[in-house]
Amino acid sequence: VRVSRRSSLFASRKSVKEKARLRLRAFDVGDKFSRLPLAKASVLLPLLVREGRLHLLLTVRAMQLRRSPGEVCFPGGKSEATDKDEIDTALREAKEEVGLQPEKVEVICRLVPGIDKMNHLVTPVVGFIEDTFQATPNPDEVSDVFVVPLEYFIKPLNYKTLPYKTSSGYLSWMHCFIYDDQERKTSFKIWGLTAHFALFLALIIFGKRPTFEVDYDLDNLISSAENNFMNLYASLHERKKSNL
């Protein structure tokens, strides 16, 4: 009995991954946005399957960091001259921050980028990692590592929106998810660009309406995501011109 249960678990894990892979590949932007004249950064969105469900691995930034100390984010950072592309950057940073070996990541795709507070073009790179992965956080950069069921980002138990001013000066709203990790008795606040990428990933993979409002046309998710991004980029560009 044990063997058949294990093999059926393995089969279901495989089919969960296979479904996700197919959906994600349809959203791969490749290097479509790579030539935009902004400083580059990348993050890795590490997916793993636990108990038949997809989970996302996230980190908490060390308290002594100058930028966004103690905030939840994905492994990642600025691109370096030696990086071939955004995928290279994401893998190198994940290795430096949580000890994830690049060859242990099955890279699936690059998704529509975002623009952070420092006006970096941030590319999300999605990859599968083994559910047995044991993070070894680099204490200079990361104070904690945890996983969240991906479905939480479309069906959260604790969600709110936070007002913020975009870099081009207009008022907008950002998603904020509070995730209570029962095992560890810790609450994590996931917001900003990290929440934006996690939500987009969940929308792609599950193809379901979330329990809250989103500014995507869910019937044309890829084109509306690209339009949103290009509008954001254009507004940034306008502001740069008016500041000259």
From TrEMBL:
The keyword Protein biosynthesis does not apply. Its cofactor is Mn(2+); Mg(2+). Its EC number is 3.6.1.77. GO terms for biological process: coenzyme A catabolic process; nucleoside diphosphate metabolic process. The chain crosses the membrane at residues 190-207. It is found in: Peroxisome. InterPro entries: CoAse, NUDIX_hydrolase-like_dom_sf, NUDIX_hydrolase_dom, NUDIX_hydrolase_NudL_CS. One of its GO terms (molecular function) is manganese ion binding. Monomer. Belongs to the Nudix hydrolase family. PCD1 subfamily. This is Peroxisomal coenzyme A diphosphatase NUDT7.
